[in-house]
Design a protein that fits this description.
The protein is α/β, with parallel strands linked by helices. The chain has 3 domains: 3-189, 3-Layer(aba) Sandwich (Lysozyme-like), CATH 3.40.80.10; 206-251, no CATH class; 285-325, no CATH class. The chain has 8 helices and 10 strands. It has helices spanning 12-16, 117-138, 150-155, 176-189, 225-234, 267-278, 291-301, 307-321, and strands at residues 3-5, 24-29, 71-75, 81-85, 104-109, 147-149, 206-209, 220-222, 241-243, 249-251.
Length: 325
């Protein structure tokens, strides 16, 4: 599976941010002859290609509708088949048009003219692998009604009236029963269960824009954070920020930063230093004589000293004893 991640953070569904506990998976297909992922997933990450019509789903109301799914499967710019996760798996999507939104993960397969067997085989296999991974992750059984398509959901009264994917799969000898069987085989063939809903191989994209919701202001999407930061710094005057795949600000050039080149004094250390500087040093190896002894010594020396010598000796003794007069 060629799984990548580019969350539709500009979509109202993502902004609403409601959580679910996934209990099922619902398949959809787009119903339009356009297999290109860039039609729905934006911005260009270097693999998708640019959507010059600006009719992608990374905006509040795509095509004027309140819609959003957890993933799309289709073609990259080079023709390779890939899956793009577009919502967190545990976020409530707007895909079923019914109560299935409350418990089902939903993804779209980009339709082509429905007559290309090679393309169908590629997206079918990708969908099988995606469902196998999600079933292992969330303990979903690959059987009806836990794993179904939109038309099956409609017949159960949990989704709106749509025919996908049963208007397409039978053209290539497939049905939802064969799909569920293939998902079960893929799960059994897996060497180890997947414990994390978001594999470590998923690419992280850093986006440079003014706000999380303002997808139109985006000036770039980068795999390397350093490149995204550099782009934001170039637009510092226009207040461009760097957002991670979850819409969190990871770099804001306009934020006030402390100048680390100027050390901040530590008041406690400064006070201690001043105290130590004001305190005269004493020689611990030389005991200070008591005052009586000093007076006796002065009296003994008085007849031998001149007045000036006596004053000098007295000053030195006062310093030693720290006597203030």
């Amino acid at each position: 599976m060629n799984l990548r991640k580019l969350l539709l953070t500009g979509n109202n569904c993502y902004i609403a941010g409601r959580k679910i506990a996934p209990a099922g998976i619902m398949l959809h297909s787009t119903g339009a002859n356009n297999p290109e992922l860039k039609r729905y997933v934006c911005p260009d990450d270097g693999l998708l290609g640019a959507n010059r019509n600006n009719n992608h789903w990374n905006q509040p109301k795509p095509d004027g509708r309140e819609v959003c799914v957890h993933a799309f499967i289709g073609k990259l710019a080079d023709g390779a088949i890939a899956t793009y996760q577009t919502l967190p798996w545990e976020m409530r999507g707007w895909h079923a048009g019914g109560k299935a939104n409350d418990t089902y993960i939903g993804f779209e397969i980009c339709e082509d003219g429905k007559n290309d067997a090679g393309y169908f085989t590629g997206v079918y296999r990708e969908a099988v692998e995606l469902c196998a991974m999600l079933c292992r992750t969330y303990g979903i059984k690959p059987e009806k009604p836990a794993l179904l398509c939109h038309s099956e959901g409609s017949s159960l009264g949990i989704a709106s009236a749509h025919s996908d994917v049963m208007h397409w799969f039978p053209m290539h000898g497939k049905s939802m029963d064969t799909f569920r069987a293939d998902v079960k085989k893929a799960m059994e063939a897996a060497a180890e269960p997947v414990s994390e809903p978001e594999p470590t191989s998923v690419a992280v994209i850093y986006r440079v824009r003014k706000t999380r919701e303002d997808g139109a202001s985006q000036i770039g999407a980068y795999k390397e954070l350093a490149n995204a930061v550099a782009a934001a710094e170039e637009k510092k005057a226009e207040v461009y920020r760097v957002f991670d795949e979850n819409g969190k600000v990871v770099h804001d050039p306009s934020a006030s930063l402390t100048d680390s080149s100027t050390p901040v004094p530590d008041p406690a250390r400064t006070c201690q230093k001043r105290k130590s500087m004001s305190k005269p040093a004493t020689d611990a190896a030389s005991p200070v004589p008591d005052q009586k002894t000093i007076i006796e010594e002065i009296n003994r020396l008085l007849p031998l000293l001149s007045e000036s010598d006596l004053k000098r000796v007295k000053r030195e003794l006062e310093k030693t004893l720290q006597i203030k007069h």
